[in-house]
């Protein structure tokens, strides 16, 4: 009776906390100290995969890392399926035994049950043959009954806390999408926040481009990966075959799995207006850590990201319309003014300089008056196309107004900018314009930061003066702005 009383007092200690890890540690500490066992573990049942995985243990820790047993297999799996204790006095001759420690000689597995449902197994191992007598088995079975209640209470409490934290995170994410103006910063923030509220260690956000390919736009986490922003997800990735349904993936069966340390992935489509516009992929190195409730909550996050993505694309389209010239399709003066400010700030901070070309089509009024405005519009479109095809992708071509164009050349100074300007001048002069009986030429003024000014207005003014000098000197030529005098 004294042993039962002691065991009852120990069981009450197990029921004194709602923290799952504390409950498991209490259970194993009692098993280890009171019954003098060398190895012990608690395996919890994953209801989705129907596997028992080790959640806590003592003894041979390294052997049990990421260890799991199928339901109905081994001594522990058999105990779970039979819903009664299974004792093997000599595991060396027991075909059901799954070796975890070379020194184990006897094993006792007791199912942890709540309302006739198995939630896990208490597995006790000894290095002594036939270590567990009937009294010990009965005491451990009694203890397991009390431990099961404490375990279930802790699981329910943990799930409630986990769910509350996830709902709070979803609410915070939804609010963030309404106030964050920089979409890239929003995606980076999501990748940082999700591992704080969900059992995932790395987050990847892919968005579809104009060709329908999924491009990595943001990722963050602690897993090793070769992926970098801008990488395209190969078409063979198994997640894509899931259509609009989230699915857990085995990364070892996935061609695009560039995070080999992961043991579990979940891939959720970002769906807007019935179309998949991206993917949210969450990965972790822990097996069976994502529960159905976690995936449901992540689906809500995916819906928020999809909506934010679609909204950002609408904003980009509106911005493009606001910054585009309706006739030529290139940028307009509004965009030129704002972009030049950005480039000047960047050049001042990192060096490399920036140059501006102010370009005017020579005798354009004569072209309009003699050949009509429709042909004049064709000249403007053709000229802007020549500039676009002759320049780098980082160069910015704008229609400044009327027959005047402005071009920003980042990381370009002095002679290099003059050389680019002359290349454009020659390209226009050597182009045949249908409907015109004479060549079209342009005059170009060139100014640079910081030699010709340190503000947007100063640089544009200097380029304008240089353009005026080019026209006054006979047109169809390039003139450089004079260096700004520096006060000594």
Structure description:
- By secondary structure, the protein is of the alpha+beta class.
- It folds into three domains: 2-158, GAF domain (Beta-Lactamase); 180-320, GAF domain (Beta-Lactamase, 2-Layer Sandwich); 333-480, Reverse transcriptase/Diguanylate cyclase domain (Alpha-Beta Plaits), CATH 3.30.70.270.
- Helix content is 43%, strand content 23%.
- Strands 3-2-1-6-5-4 form a six-stranded antiparallel β-sheet, sandwiched between helices. It has a five-stranded antiparallel β-sheet with strand order 8-7-11-10-9.
- β15 (442-449), α11 and β16 (478-480) form a beta-alpha-beta unit.
- The radius of gyration is 36 Å and the shape is rod-shaped.
- The protein starts with a helix and ends in an 8-residue tail after the last strand.
The total strand number stands at 16
Numbering strands along the chain, what is their spatial order in the largest sheet? 3-2-1-6-5-4
N- to C-terminal distance: 101 Å
Predict the CATH topology of the largest domain.
Answer: Beta-Lactamase
What brief labels describe this structure?
488 residues; Beta-Lactamase; Alpha-Beta Plaits; 3 domains; six-stranded antiparallel beta sheet; five-stranded antiparallel beta sheet; 43% helix
Element layout with pairings:
Elements: H1 2-14, H2 20-35, E1 39-46, E2 51-58, E3 68-70, H3 74-82, E4 86-88, E5 106-114, E6 117-126, H4 134-179, H5 183-197, E7 202-208, E8 214-221, E9 247-249, E10 264-272, E11 275-284, H6 292-323, H7 333-350, E12 354-361, H8 364-371, H9 373-390, E13 396-401, E14 404-410, H10 414-429, E15 442-449, H11 456-472, E16 478-480
Parallel strand pairs: 15-16
Antiparallel strand pairs: 1-2, 1-6, 2-3, 4-5, 5-6, 7-8, 7-11, 9-10, 10-11, 12-14, 12-15, 13-14
Helix pairs in contact: 1-2, 1-4, 2-4, 4-5, 4-6, 8-9, 9-10
